[in-house]
Write a structure and sequence with these properties.
The protein is an alpha/beta fold. It contains eight helices and nine strands. Helices cover 47% and strands 12% of the residues.
């Protein structure tokens, strides 16, 4: 009996052990798919994932131009978005007043230059400009050699407290006067002085004995030597020119006026 009882107990124990083993095996089968035990060695091994790495690289290479273009477009959009802000920052620029000041200075310089040119342009046949027109008579030093003119076109030089009329531009140049010396004064200032002998350029050619006084572009025949001396002419003032040049000058009234017709040189 005891053997039989043992056998049954042994069978029961064996069944219990088998049941426990089955439970443990079933638990192990359920836990095995959840636990990623074999995954790490596969990832650490570089040989098998060679093909997927190449495919991933090719896919990255294929996708890279798209991503680059997208990044470039995004960068452009960001730049475009920031452009107005960068322009708005110097909205109140500091150099603007200086630029306007430069323009004003340039315009002022141009205006001053134009005025300087205008006042130095001669406004009459004598070549007198506004820069020398109407000085203060009180500021003039009254002395011999003072060159002045009134409202008319005649230019005078003061000599021995008398005003001597410079009869022509040729005489003006011949006696060494300059336009810078001419002072424009009131007619009342001219009336303070008596008239002296006019200043002439005396012309003569080698093949003619006649002497002519140049006045207003015309040659005036001087009748004879006594008339020459009576007019106060000086032989040093006689200028020799060609007879052809004398003939080309128009003939004026002789000196004196009743001397008769003027002979040609």
């Amino acid at each position: 009996m005891t053997n039989e009882n043992r056998s049954t107990t042994d069978q029961i124990l064996d069944l219990l052990l088998d049941a426990l083993q089955e439970r443990q095996s079933s638990r192990q089968q359920v836990d095995e798919p959840i636990a990623p035990a074999p995954a790490p060695p596969e990832e650490m091994n570089p040989a098998p994932p060679a093909v997927p790495i190449e495919t991933s690289q090719t896919e990255d290479e294929e996708e890279s131009p798209l991503t680059q273009t997208e990044e470039a477009e995004e960068a452009n959009e960001t730049e475009v978005e920031w452009e107005p802000t960068s322009l708005k920052e110097p909205a109140p620029p500091t150099p603007l007043p200086s630029i306007q000041l430069d323009k004003m200075l340039r315009r002022l310089a141009v205006a001053v230059g134009i005025l300087i040119i205008l006042i130095n342009i001669p406004f009459n046949r004598s070549g007198l400009s506004l820069a020398r027109a109407m000085p203060d008579a009180q500021s003039l030093v009254i002395r011999d050699g003072l060159v002045f003119k009134g409202s008319g076109e005649r230019i005078y030089v003061l000599e021995d407290s008398r005003k001597r009329w410079i009869t022509s531009l040729e005489a003006f140049d011949y006696f060494g006067y300059r336009w810078e010396q001419v002072n424009v004064v009131d007619d009342s200032f001219l009336d303070q002085f008596e008239d002296g002998r006019p200043l002439y350029v005396l012309l003569k050619c080698q093949n003619s004995p006649h002497i002519y006084a140049l006045e207003d572009g015309q040659k005036r025949w001087i009748k004879d030597i006594p008339t020459f001396e009576a007019q106060g002419f000086v032989w040093d003032d006689v200028k020799f020119v060609s007879c052809g040049e004398l003939r080309r000058l128009p003939t004026g009234t002789p000196i004196p006026a009743d001397a008769g017709p003027s002979p040609e040189p």
